[in-house]
Specification:
This protein is an alpha+beta fold. It is built from three helices and five strands; from the N terminus they run αββαβββα. The longest helix has 27 residues, at about 35-60. About 25% of the residues are buried.
Length: about 120
């Protein structure tokens, strides 16, 4: 079973998916329309690339860089949170404890992943 499939069935997950860094392919499961999943994949890819670039710039200008390469990112909105690690995204309901469980699973499965899973 893929990581995004495992995430999609966890309590509090709205949808989960994976995307290609080329931006032309994605897979998802959950409560998103095909068009919303396509847009989510594009947004996650663009934000991931920006996050990597910013971490690289900070390290390039520092003799003692406090960062390893970026592994992912999280953004919280009023209704849900988006978590991304490697090329896997997860939309999570903002309920107590949900984000911690989801992020722990993503970290366990994806922390040592290459750019693509």
């Amino acid at each position: 079973m893929s990581v995004y499939s495992e995430l999609a069935v966890m309590e509090g997950v709205i949808a989960a998916g994976e995307y290609a860094y080329r931006g032309d392919r994605y897979n998802f499961k959950g409560q998103l329309s095909e068009e919303m999943a396509r847009m989510a994949s594009i947004m996650c890819r663009a934000t991931t690339m920006s996050t990597h670039m910013q971490a690289d710039i900070l390290c390039a200008n520092s003799d003692n860089c406090p960062f390893e390469s970026a592994h992912g990112w999280i953004v919280m909105g009023p209704q849900f949170t988006v978590c991304v690690m490697a090329n896997v995204f997860c939309f999570v309901q903002n309920e107590p404890g949900v984000l911690n469980r989801i992020f722990e699973r993503m970290r366990d499965k994806l922390m040592d992943a290459d750019e693509m899973v």
